[in-house]
Amino acid sequence: MKKTKSISRAKWGYICILPFFVTYFIFSFLPLVDTIRYSFYEYYRSGIRTIGPNFVGFDNYISVMGPDFFTYLKNTFILWIIGFVPQIVIALLLASWFVDARLKIRGEQFFKVVIYLPNLIMASAFAMLFFTLFSTSGPVNSILANLGLVDGPIDFMGTPTGTRLLVALMNFLMWFGNTTIMLMAAIMGISQDVFEAASIDGCTPRQTFFHITLPLIRPILTYTLITSLIGGLQMFDVPQILTNGQGNPNRTSYTLIMWLNNLLRAPDYGRAGAISVYLFVVSGILCIMVYRMVNRDDEKKIRRRFNRN
User: How confident is the model at residue 256 (pLDDT cuts 50, 70, 90)?
Assistant: First the structure.
């Protein structure tokens, strides 16, 4: 019998994914390696004279690891937390309401479009809009004065709390729609038979939400937490435009990426590279912690089954 030659089409799959890897290698991997390399060099401009690149080892890492680093890291986390907590809570509520068959909400597609629209607006446009609305001579102060609620204009951006709340509100408005859509898709992926069985067994909506919905959408929740955490550590455009790059008042809204941007503009490539590496390490550690914390129960169940066997 003649052996039939098997035709392998695997090479076409590799050819199709090759452009992605080439693009990633050129625009992501090489800059990442170059950033790590520059972090070990003294490379900055003093006046019109450029110093370096001179190898200095870990001097840049030691130089940036001071009070400013921890202050700006704290500012970054505060801005992220006060924006993300209401975002995930409201997104969960909206997602559970929209997909609840008992409520029979009409116009679901319309609401999806409406809540997603702010995500299409550029952060710079959002920041300029809020800067105009909440300035001392802006529409918000005018409305409050005409209603007799205030005696004089409120300087929203003159206090740390006011500035941070404005930044958090902008981040919330820009991203809660995207989070809601993802959580709706996750909940819709749960079989309706599970909810019907829970209803027959007498589960209340609260019990159904906390004991069925939340555990079953845990993978999407983990993804949302991790991507939001990474985005929060990279927060730049909103506080940069709202505070004109100063992080006022008293740099209480000054983030690590704003500091990194100013070092790149100086330029001081060595210290900027060190901050980038620190951010990479902090992001990785926090993402691992979030993943382990969210999936702790699953790991315990797997260990119990393994020990039984």
Answer: very high
DSSP string, 108-137: HHHHHHHHHGGGGS-HHHHHHHHHHHTSTT
**pLDDT band at residue 302, thresholds of 50, 70 and 90?**
very low
Instruction: Return all residues near 62 (Cβ < 8 A) that are at least 6 apart.
Output: none
Interatomic CA distance for residues 294 and 86, integer angstroms = 19
Name the average pLDDT for the chain: 85
Tell me the β-bridge partners of 45. 50
| Dmax (CA) of the chain | 99
**pTM of this structure:** 0.82
- Confirm whether 6 is domain-assigned: no
Residue 57 lies in a domain: yes
CA-to-CA separations, 136 to 50, 157, 199, 245, 286, in angstroms, rounded: 43, 9, 53, 19, 39
Element (H or E) spanning 302, and its range? Answer: helix 296-308
Residue 298 has pLDDT above 60, yes or no: no
Q: How far apart are CA 268 and CA 156, in angstroms?
A: 34
Structure tokens at 131: 């800067």
| CATH at residue 204 | 1.10.3720.10
Pick from 39, 42, 36, 64: nearest CA to 55: 42
Look up the domain containing 104 and give its range.
13-308
